[in-house]
Structure formats: structure tokens, C-alpha cells
Amino acid sequence: MANKVIITCAITGGIHTPTLSDALPYKPADLASQAIEAAEAGAAILHIHARDPETGAPTGSPDVYRQFLPIIKQGTDAVINLTTGGSPDMTPEDRLAGALTFSPEMCSLNMGSMNFSFHDMGRKVKEWKFAWEDQYILDSEKFIFRNTFADIRRNYELLSDHGTRFEHECYDIGHLYNLAYFVDKGVAKPPFFIQSIFGILGGIGGDLDNVMFMKRTADRLFGKDYVWSVLGAGKYQMPVCTMAAQLGGNVRVGLEDSLFIGRGKLASSNAEQVRKIVRIIGEMGLEPATADEARQMLALKGADRTQI
Amino acid sequence: MANKVIITCAITGGIHTPTLSDALPYKPADLASQAIEAAEAGAAILHIHARDPETGAPTGSPDVYRQFLPIIKQGTDAVINLTTGGSPDMTPEDRLAGALTFSPEMCSLNMGSMNFSFHDMGRKVKEWKFAWEDQYILDSEKFIFRNTFADIRRNYELLSDHGTRFEHECYDIGHLYNLAYFVDKGVAKPPFFIQSIFGILGGIGGDLDNVMFMKRTADRLFGKDYVWSVLGAGKYQMPVCTMAAQLGGNVRVGLEDSLFIGRGKLASSNAEQVRKIVRIIGEMGLEPATADEARQMLALKGADRTQI
Amino acid sequence: MANKVIITCAITGGIHTPTLSDALPYKPADLASQAIEAAEAGAAILHIHARDPETGAPTGSPDVYRQFLPIIKQGTDAVINLTTGGSPDMTPEDRLAGALTFSPEMCSLNMGSMNFSFHDMGRKVKEWKFAWEDQYILDSEKFIFRNTFADIRRNYELLSDHGTRFEHECYDIGHLYNLAYFVDKGVAKPPFFIQSIFGILGGIGGDLDNVMFMKRTADRLFGKDYVWSVLGAGKYQMPVCTMAAQLGGNVRVGLEDSLFIGRGKLASSNAEQVRKIVRIIGEMGLEPATADEARQMLALKGADRTQI
Amino acid sequence: MANKVIITCAITGGIHTPTLSDALPYKPADLASQAIEAAEAGAAILHIHARDPETGAPTGSPDVYRQFLPIIKQGTDAVINLTTGGSPDMTPEDRLAGALTFSPEMCSLNMGSMNFSFHDMGRKVKEWKFAWEDQYILDSEKFIFRNTFADIRRNYELLSDHGTRFEHECYDIGHLYNLAYFVDKGVAKPPFFIQSIFGILGGIGGDLDNVMFMKRTADRLFGKDYVWSVLGAGKYQMPVCTMAAQLGGNVRVGLEDSLFIGRGKLASSNAEQVRKIVRIIGEMGLEPATADEARQMLALKGADRTQI
Ligand SMILES: [Zn+2]
Ligand SMILES: [Zn+2]
Ligand SMILES: [Zn+2]
Ligand SMILES: [Zn+2]
């Protein structure tokens, strides 16, 4: 499968707010239909967050997940990957509730604590759709995305019984070393799926030199035991993905990571971004991996062994 | 001053505990004498933390600082640089108290939140000198070193009236981007003194490839507006410093960063580490900068304008 | 012109032989029509070699150039760039004859001596179209591409009266240092157009890490005084160009550099490769520079001041 | 032998001329005594060229070698490594004569053709000791150091019967790819001893970024099958060696590579440079490998199986 690229699509996330793009889905039906359309366009993995169906505010409530996860499962065989990153307002327990309830094939696992800030993101907005959005964005100046060594260890432990495997989100070089610590301790098991993230304020920047250095460091620390994927925030989305694909890596797109499809142009849907990266890798002679190819590359347990 | 290297010596820090090395100073007289001896050996800057005179536990109390800072000032003209990093038990206010009280020429400023863990450090210890040490070390598995964007902004604001300049402590590549954010906002003023830190669990590792990449990234982000220094934790101390010196950078040594002078061999004092790095840079044709040369390179206000 | 990419198309070169691809032009009419079509597809610069009209063997004869250069000039306003690299059989004088005769806007200038070998290239060929081809390829095991410091200096001198500017062909990191030597001596004048070449046996390989390192080294040596372009030989053509375009560089394609359009698939024409790279950079939000934009970026004298 | 560093000392070479330093040995007795002294100082390998006993001009004559090689062999058990690089005036046959005659444990093997120029080296000289020196230096502007693929293949073939192993001299990144070509063909046998050379005009420069990149590329191409050593020309000698030692590499010093011991200060002997690098690596906790340790690391046949 040397010429196959696993495309993950992150449908909505917990950062962008509804006012920033009309395309950002938060109603269960929209989340499901955009997810299914993204899978049809070439995404093998769907990275999923829940949103309050009325206000679009991030939530980790299993009751909300239940309103759309089964629809997605019925509509596509793509791998469902639930966040454990959540959003600034959630406790560690809130963040894990979805994964513990639905026992998905994959969930995200954030490999370190960090500032995660987007307080300048709403500057140009004149009128907000919902009351919570403005302060939510401003408060991120004070936000620490909490993922202590004790937290990470606990997540590995709690989810190991579920056979759920991890999208190890690494926002900086040090996060690779944190993962190496857990590999050393025998807690993390190969193949490690590493999602390197570029361009978040608080993490490593989106410059392409960083993309290459991240891979080189992962090569040094993990040899052939890892499967590499990347995402770039905002304007870095396509450059970072293009570069990683050239280096033999996999890619993540989706409205969680960027609301845009080109300079100053909002994407109309998650699928539009998937189609764009499919075209780009196609020019390189590469093809999207199917969901089952992704399952094989990442040693996943299969959709039938989840509680969705 | 092309062949001058600013040597900072970090006398005791807030991480190592008294049981780990008899040489680690915590009594005011010992802190002062080791600091002065380090300066005589070639350190131009003394990076200072306070310790409880009885138990050796980290403290930020101005009353404790007052027991030894004047002795240091009287004994040497080296630049006094007070920590604002403190230790896991301190609040943001505790951490700033020393700098606000003494208005030093420099203080440290940590450029991001992160895990900062050393929970495996006491494994080999059979008997502890003080009751607090064991749990203090174990608890670091849960520790987040808090430095949000709002915190950092506040520190710049509070200290700008003092004319105190900053040792910008950067534990990962992202921290350089955080500094770039404050440069962009006009809050940070050149020349930026950047202390890149390698080998702390939670931050970027101590491998030499990282040292070069850190410099390259700083070059890209700050051009000629910064003065670079490095420290390596534990066994990385001398390799990281040697390499940075070769690249035109400055160095930090001291018992805060490593308790050792060679493989498995404890250092007998801070000055012993200073003397070692002085010999190494000497082989390269480099010399330690004097305190006044350091003041000029870093645009410091001068010892007479502090409240020590 | 931040989002403009100068596309150079190298129509036929002096390495590939007619048997290797039916699309490789060597008759004057074919050279002209493929060049014009490449320009129409988006190439701003046409890098030109001559071939014997009967046998397709490389030649530097002005008489042969005269059979198609005027046709190209009449058919397109693209910049005409004549090789001075020639082929293994030519003397230094042969190699310069075209440039001295036609005084083009640009000519190539190879920045160092090196092995330049392709002796394994004909292994799969059963029957050769022309008698010279087989031995020509095998002999390259013994070939040294001669470009001594004295030769390079002489080329600068001979062509400076013509106002012809240079495509500085750099096949390895050392060639950048060679150029830096001539910059230091005041012989080379900015803006330097640097063509970095990857994947020739004898030069630096086509791995993408090399592309980034080449740029980093050029940045260090030449700062803002250079305009960067790349070419990748054979299978490296599109990956190398894609990566450089992402890094803000310019690109060269064409049948001189690769006979292929995809894995194992021969290109049907030079223009087909131009169209492919135009699509790729288009996905990045970039556009081909026009010939006049290229002239401006490279400080060229203009087509009307040549002897074509 | 993780903390052992193989020190090679290159006693006289074929580039520097007698006028440039009184310490440069060319009389048989001086060559022998400096070589033995260098070995006593810590060199495990002696890289040897011959010089005309009267004029100091480079020679490849076995008759000249015979005047001092046996003395060296008797005086030290260090590995004797004969050049096949020779000097600009020698034919390929001249260059091989010594190795074919004496069947040494090692000989050098230059991995590519290149410009190798030092024509500015004599600018400050007012009076030359010997008539040949001035023109010899000036002529290097026209010099190509010839090592075609066919030449290299022939050297492997001619010397394979002798059990002589190679110091693969790589002056640029492409030379590593050339070696990889011969590895691929099954001609070169591991462990490959790679001597990376920095700072020769015509090859890769002496900047430390290049040293790290050279190692990274070798790691990628040869994995664990190679033993790495470096040399830096002139002022780059000690920085390049220091850096490589930190990266786990081995080092070459000696008057062939640099006539200096510090900024503007001529070395008084080869041994003085050996002693300096021994001190530097000592500060890193590293020790010089003995000759027998070097033999084991490089799989050499032993001094008793040579014709010296
Ligand atoms: Zn997410
Ligand atoms: Zn500190
Ligand atoms: Zn050409
Ligand atoms: Zn030699």
C-alpha cells in the first residue's frame, strides 16, 4: 500500500464557532451528512466531536453523540474516531465520556499540556449568531489544554480494555518525546498513529521546515513503528498536507482544522476539502486509502466491535 | 565581541531536592558563596531561585531572597537574574514577588504552558533528607507549568515599569512562535535574550539535531534581533552548551540544570561546571563575556538601578 | 508577484537519446513547435539545446540553432535560454558558441565539475534508432562534466559584454559555495537565478530533504539576492518541483529532465509536463509567471536585444 | 566502544607547500617522526602521502614511500592508510602505485570528480622556498580532481585482491550518493568508512549545518553499515571535528587538512593537533580509540598482512 494515503476528515471540532462559517456543521443531521459525504469523497477516518444541537457549543455528552453516530455508521464504513480533546470548558471526565460509552475503533489522545489560543479569531466579526461564541473565543487567551503525564497514562489505561487505538495528537516536538516516554514504559503499543499538528497558537508553527523536522524526529524516535499523519491549521492546511504526502505521510483535513478552501474563500463543506487533497495527491500518483486499508495499516479492531 | 560567550549559571533552581546532591545549595550563605564563586569562574549572569533555609524547599519569598541577594551583589558585579518560573507549588503571584520587589536587571519569563515532569527522578533514593522531597518529585507527574498567553502578557506589563529585561525560556519550538506572537504585538522589545531549554520531560529532547533546529527557527523568526543561549538538562548539559557555543550561541550551566560534572559523577559546585565550559569554549578560541559585556549585549539597565 | 512561479521548460537537452522516447524532439520543426506549445501551456523560459537534425545527436552548432531559434522567437515571447552545458562530446568552445552567436537573454552556467553519468540508462533497450546512442550512453561512466573555476570565470567574462544573464546550474551543495566564491569576487551580479538540480548520478540525490537543505543553504549564502528554481531528474521531477513551489521557489520541467508524466508512463510532449505542474501549483493558489514577469524578476535585457 | 573516537592524522597531503609552514614535513625522516609522534599522541590511523625529499613536491613514487613507511611501521602499530588521491600532477596510475605496491590496511578512495582549488592560497607569500610552489598553487584554478565512476570501479577491483579497505572521501552530498551506487551494485562492502570533507573550495562548505546534514544523509543511505569520520579544511578543522565527535563520529586532523592550531597561529606539528582534539573529546567523556580498536571497528586485515 505504498501509494495509499489515509485521509482523515475532522468534521467540526471544538474551536470554530458557528458564526465563523455557515458550513460548520453542529446539528446532528448536518454532522452526519457532512461526515458521510466526506467519506464518499475519500476520507477513510472521520474525526468526530459533538456540538449542542441548538447553540453549536462544543459538548462531550454521549446523549448528543447518540443522535448522529449511528447515522454515520449506517451511512459509511469509514472509521469513526472520537475526540478526547474536547474543548476548553470540559473536564477530563467530560472529555473521555464519549470514548468510554461508544468504544470506538479510534480516539484522539493529546500528548501534552499546552497553551491553545485563538483569542484573536473573532476580531472581524460584527454580529454573533450565538451568545456564547464571543467570550468563548476571548477566554482562550487564558486557556491551558490540559494533558498531564498522569492524565495521558490514565487514558491509556481506561481505554486499553476497549481495544480502542489512538490518534496521538502531537502539537510540538516535545510531544513526540512524551510519546516516546510512554513507548519506553511499554504503555503505548505500535503501530503508533501520530497526528502532527502545525499552526495552532501555542504549538509549533505551520512553516514547512517544521513539517520535515517533525518527521525526522519521529523517524529517529520511533523508526518503523509509527504511521504518520499531519494537519495544518487555517492557511497551513493544504501546504502541510501536500508536503507530508510527498514525504510518505498521511493527511487530515476538515472544518475543525480550517474553514477555508483557498485564500480568503470559505469551504462549502468538509467534502470539498477532501476532494481538493484527493486531487493533489492524485497528481503525485497517490490514492486515498479505503477504510479497510486504513484499518489494516493501523491495526484497528473493526467497526463491528464498537458500541455505536 | 564576536568571540565572547555569555555564561549564565543557574545556582539551585526549584526542581532538584537536597537529597539528590550534597552540593546543591539552599542555605543563604551557601547560595551566595556558590554564586560568587561561579561568577569568579566566568559566569556573567547568575540565575537565582530561593530555597527555604531550613528544608531546602523552593520558595519565592522576598524575605528569603533578602538573606542572600545583597551578599551576592556585594561579592560580584555579575548580573542578577531572578526566576519567575518558581516551582510547582507556587501561584503566579508567588512567582512574580521576587522580581517585583527587587527590580533586578533580568528575570526569567517562561514562554508557554507545558508538562514539566521529573517523577522518576527519585527512584534510586533510599532515604530522604527532608520529608517534602519524595512527594514533591512524584507529584510532578500531574504538574502543568502554567504560562498562559494572558499570564505572559501580564508579566511583560508588570515588569516593563521596572526596566527589567527577560531571559525568555523556550522549552520547545512552539515557545519561539509564542515569543514571535508577542514581538508581533509590539510587547516584546529587542534584543530578545532567548534561553532554549533541552531535555526536560515535557519539552523538546536533548538531541543535538534539536539544538540546531531551534537556532534555525529562531533565526527565521527573529533575524538579528535576538541573543541566543541554551541549557541542557542532566546529561545533555555539556553537549548542548558545546554545540551552541560552536554555533555562535551563549550557554547556561549550574546545578539547577544538572547535578553532574561527568558520566555518573556529581559536580562539587556550580563553579566546577562553569570552569568546565570555560575550558571547552577556550579550545574553540572563545572567551567568557564579562558581566559588563553581557550588559551591553543584552541592553541591561545596570546593577545600580535595581532594588537589591 | 508573491504568487507567481517561473516555469522553465527544458525542451530536449543533451542526455536522452531518441530511442528512449518518441516524444523527444530533435528535428528543428519539432523543437520549435514543442517549445512554443510549452510556452503556451505556461512556461515563461525555454531552456534550449540543439540536436543534429538527422541523427538526434547533441550539437552546439550555431547553424543548427539557426534553423529553429527564429521560429521560436516568432511564435512566443517566452525567454530563450541557451545551454552552455552542452554534452559529453563537446569542448568548452563548442559549448559557448551558441550563446556567443545569439546573445540570448539567458544562458545556463554550470557551477562546478562533476561526474555526470547515465550509463545504466539504456539497459532495457533492445534496438536503437541511431548508431551513436548506445555507446554515447555507456561512455558516460567515464564522463566528467568539466566546469573548472577558470572555465566559469571565463564564461562570466565572455558573456558579460552581451548582457546575457545566467541560469546557475547547481548540482550539489558545493556548487552553491562555488557561486558564493564568484559573488565574493564581484564577478556574479544579483539577482542570481539558481537552478538547483536533484537526482543526477554524480550530483545530489532527489530526496526531498535535499531540496529543503539546498534552499536553506542558499538562503544562508545569498540572503535575498537570489531567485530559486529547481529541477528533479526522472522520477524526481514532479516531487522536487512541487516541494520547491511550496517553499516559494520556481520550477523547471521538460523532456531534458524527465521523459515521463507518471509512474512508467512516457510524456507525450514537453507541454504535457508544463500543464501538469501548472495544475499542481494552481491547487496551491499559485500561477505561472508570464514571460515579462520573469524578465522583471530576473532583470533580463529583453528579447529585442538578442541576436536571434 | 561507544565512547571511543578513531583519530586519523593526515601528515602532509599533497596541497600545502613547504613555504606555507615550516612544520609541514616532506623529508622521509620528518614524515616518519611526525607520524610516530602523532600516533603516540592518540592517532589510530595515519593517512600518508609522499613528498619529494628534496623539493617537497607531491609524489606517488613507491621508491619514496619506501624511505619512510618501514620506519613508521617499526615505530608504531597505528594503521597506515595510503592516499590514492595524490595531487593535481598525477595520473590515475601514479595515484594507485603506492597502494598496489605496499598493499596497506587502508587506502583513500575519492568518491567523485570535482573542482579542487586553492589558487588564492599563496597570495600573502613574498618569497617561495621552492620554484614549483607558486605555479602549482595558481594552476589549481584549472584543476579537476578526477574520480569518474569508471575510475572508482577500477580502484575497487584492483584493490579487492589486496584486502585493503577504504577511507571513502566524500566532499559533498552527491559523493554519498555515488557511494550508495557502488553499495547497490555490490561493489562496496560494509562497514564503509566514510570520511566527510568540509571546506575545500569546490566541495561542500565548512558550516556546521553541513556537518549535521552530511551525517543525516549518510544515516538515511547507509543505516548502521557505515563508520563516520570528518575533516574540516583550514579554520574549519576543529569545529567540524568537535561537532562530529558530539554526534558520535570520528575525526581526522593533521597538517594535510590545516596548518593551524588556533586563529592565525601555525601548528608546530601534527601531534599538536592530535593533542588538541584529544583534550576536546576528553571534555566530552570520550577517548581516542587504539589502533587495534580501530582495526576492529573497520574490519581491517592487520599490519602483518601488508607489504610494508
Ligand atoms: Zn478534534
Ligand atoms: Zn530557574
Ligand atoms: Zn540543459
Ligand atoms: Zn590525503
What's the SSE blueprint?
Four copies of one chain form a homotetramer.
Chain A: E1 4-5, E2 7-10, H1 28-41, E3 45-48, E4 50-51, E5 58-59, H2 62-65, H3 69-75, E6 79-82, H4 92-102, E7 106-110, E8 114-115, H5 132-138, E9 144-145, H6 149-160, E10 165-170, H7 173-184, E11 192-198, H8 208-222, E12 226-232, H9 237-246, E13 250-253, E14 260-262, E15 265-266, H10 270-283, E16 287-288, H11 291-298
Parallel strand pairs in A: 1-16, 2-3, 2-13, 3-6, 6-7, 7-10, 10-11, 11-12, 12-13
Antiparallel strand pairs in A: 4-5, 8-9, 14-15
The complex binds zinc ion (4 copies).
The site of one zinc ion has 8 residues of chain D, from loops.
Structural summary, described in words:
- The structure is a homotetramer of 308-residue chains.
- In chain A, a hairpin with a 2-residue loop joins β14 (260-262) and β15.
- In chain A, the strands form five sheets. Chain A has an eight-stranded parallel β-barrel with strand order 2-3-6-7-10-11-12-13, surrounded by eight helices. A two-stranded parallel ribbon of chain A has the order 1-16.
- The first copy, chain A, has one domain (4-305): Aldolase class I (TIM Barrel), CATH 3.20.20.
- Chain A contains eleven helices and 16 strands.
- Chain A is α/β, with parallel strands linked by helices and 308 residues long.
- At the A-B interface, β8, α6, α7 and α8 of A face β8, α6, α7 and α8 of B.
- The structure holds zinc ion (4 copies).
- Residues 10, 13, 47, 49, 83, 85, 108, 256 of chain C line the site of one zinc ion.
